Amino acid sequence: MSLPAWDDVQPLALDTAPVPAYGTASLADLLPTLVAHQGVDGFVPVIAELTPADRNCVFLIDGLGWEQLRAHPAEAPFLTSLLESSRGGTGQPVTAGFPATTATSLASVGTGLPPGVHGLPGYTVRDPATGGLMNQLRWNPWTDPHAWQPYPTVFQQAHDAGVHTAQVSSPTFEHTPLTKVALSGGSFRGRLSGEDRMDLAAQQLAAGDRSLVYTYYAEVDGKGHRFGVDSDAWRGQLMYVDRLVQRLAEQLPPRSALYVTADHGMLDIPFDDASRIDFDEDWELRAGVALLGGEGRARHVYAVPGAENDVLTVWREVLGEQFWVAGRDEAIAAGWFGPHIDQRVYERIGDVVAAAHDDVAIIASEREPKESALVGMHGSMTPVEQLVPLLEVRT
User: In this structure, are strands 267-268 and 376-377 parallel, antiparallel, or unpaired?
Assistant: First the structure.
């Protein structure tokens, strides 16, 4: 069977990409809404369905998307019982933001800003100052965190306004640059076990008349990447985190609201050549490309100077039926990174941005051997990746 000629390919229209709900129901809108209800100046309640509480706790479960949760009621009976409470009792999810990846989403949560403003618009992006790729999750190579992301976090602003503010997470994260730029403000309380985190989060919530507490669990995402979201290991983590949420919910002090959310969903990508397109073995995709950034389902492509239009044309013609493929200005105009882009962020975004529509990924077996071997992946704007719960328990 012969492949269609390029002239016969009908690329996905960019206006069919489900752009995140920035400004109404995205992760970036959560903390501004909560602290506005707590009387912190400079914020307005953006997610209309949420109602005030004196004490707010956000529990972010890395990798637990809305669709994965709804598909596993037996493994997560307590979380499933809260589905109707999501987004203020509407029973609806919120969106992560683009790309749907941890560094971007945590920065959106902590700063209350969309990616185009906070400036962490992907897993790896080009640093305009050096011309090289910067991994924003691992912060490698190191760069000045507050030059990279200069805005104060919502936590810091709440702390300055007299709200008792704390982050309860693994001690590993206390001094990381990502924590400094996205989640700092108030006190950091490190605890290794999930049970200890839940107990301490409840104690911190009760420590102030107005409190803002954040806690986090990573291994749902970790097992999904390594074994897939339909594996026994992933299901076991979902069962465990379900018990953690119930443990925290049962300890909430009076006048509290607990919000359970996530940074992205995930899907498994089959291990075949049609599903895993290898950039390192595809001369067409490599032509004119200086740097390959992002991750398998949300690529930033940086062209050799002068080759930008040619790279966009080729990527759109080769991949356009499976990916939304946009030039930088097209992606910005479409609102993929939010309604506004800071000038310092503009050149961090790829000359070409490719977001997966189908169950496929652009791997790079030589440049990114570990990432290319992952079973579960995420990053794009499909519902399975974008939609995350905002489950609510109140006292």
Answer: antiparallel
